[in-house]
Fold this sequence. Notes:
Elements (H helix, E strand, L loop, with lengths): L1 E3 L6 E3 L2 H14 L3 E5 L6 E5 H4 L12 H4 L1
Amino acid sequence: MHIRCSYCRHSFNLSRDYLVQALAEVEKKKQKYHGVECMNCRKIIKVPVSQMRPYAPRPEPADEDEGSE
Length: 69
């Protein structure tokens, strides 16, 4: 996911691993935003969870056929 700092205009990417971890933390705390620290100016950027979800990898569905045999 590509993010641009609203203070210094530095742009950077968030990895899929980071998104999975951040979404798990947000779900546990029931938040609507996740704070990401800018690597350049060190200020916190609020990223809406609704924008993070499409970029996170989808969980693999459990196979129902494997358990029935």
